[in-house]
Here is the input.
Amino acid sequence: MGGPNLEVFKFGMYIMFPIATMYYFGTNLDARFSVPDFWPKAENTHKIPFEKEEIQAELERLRLRRLELRATRLQMEDRREKTEAFADIQDQYRDK
Here is the structure.
């Protein structure tokens, strides 16, 4: 068939192919597979409050945000109820 030279060549390919693949994908990883600005900068991340005043300020901010969202939700529900009531009145007049 092929002889001993072919067997040596095949053995060399079996050994060198995984090594060459690992070398190709293992070198220069930062430039090849990196996404620019993937991780946020320190000034853009959340800062965990540790002092008592900072914790109180954060709790107050969260409370105000919750109340603001609640007021917005109540306004939307009130508008929806008015719209539904108006649609019911229109349906009543159409049925007559």
User: Anything to note?
Assistant: The chain is about 75% helix and 0% strand. The chain has a mean pLDDT of 87. The helical segments are 4-26, 29-32, 52-95.
